[in-house]
Hints:
Blueprint: H1 2-21, H2 24-39, E1 43-49, E2 53-55, E3 58-68, E4 80-87, E5 92-99, E6 104-111, E7 119-127, E8 139-151, E9 155-159
Parallel strand pairs: 2-8
Antiparallel strand pairs: 1-3, 3-6, 4-5, 4-7, 7-8, 8-9
Amino acid sequence: MKFKRLCLFAAGILLCFTSLSQFRPLTDAILQADSFNFSHSREKIFIHHDKPYYTINDTLWLKGYIVFARDCSASDSSGIAYIEIIKSSGELIKRISTYCAAGIFYSSIRLTKEEFKQGVYVLRAYTNHMRNFGDSLFLKANLKLSILITVNGGCLYRMSI
Length: 161
């Protein structure tokens, strides 16, 4: 009776060790993926602009942040952020690049009547490092541009789309 219990206990211990050894390749693969993500982390970009809509000859003021996607800490790896304004048809209207220090950048774009007309534009921002992973993490935001009309002795009316 004692011998049967000892054999059953030994078989249980042996079964536990063999089942634990099957997780070793899985844990190795997870650690390898985590080390790749740590050394080649993706970046995310966020932008704040000063108004929800703009007029012709207005200035678009921007403040942006570049962070690592893994933990949202400030990224200093890229150094330059690219900001584009694109027509709704897909035509690139304006591209600027701005210096980024400690994950923060500032910029302004003059919306001149020679370059811009009334309509909806796409504001797109990215870094050169982000281009390695495709455009899934590029920032894309709509930008509405309207016209101010003065009538009745200087009263302003906004004509929007």
